[in-house]
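Predict the 3D structure for this chain.
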Amino acid sequence: MKRTGLTLVAALAFSASVFAGGTQGNETKSAARWDASINKVKLSRYLQLTSDQHTEVENICDYFQGEMSRALRAKKNSDEKVRNAVYGNLKLMKQTLNEKQYADYVRLMAVTLRNKGIDVAQK
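Done. Predicted structure below.
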């Protein structure tokens, strides 16, 4: 049981790095440095998307990247705009993915956001 848990943690950590599109080098983890880019090919393989889903997920990822860029550049209510971008992304993905794919995506998103220093919890 312990071995299975460790394997799961390692898989999630690896997936988060794949999802984020690579390492950030020696930079500190900062929301301002993450441009919200997502490696769509690796995400597609990880979630085992159909061709229709792949196209839709690509569009959602592009939209999310634009929303995150605007939110992080905002001078006022930046945290709220980041939260709205993330929850908007999750809402669109829920409509596109099946239950298992969506659960995997949510875990991946949570780990990625935590690794990038982004807190989207309601305050």
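The chain has one domain: 2-23+30-115.
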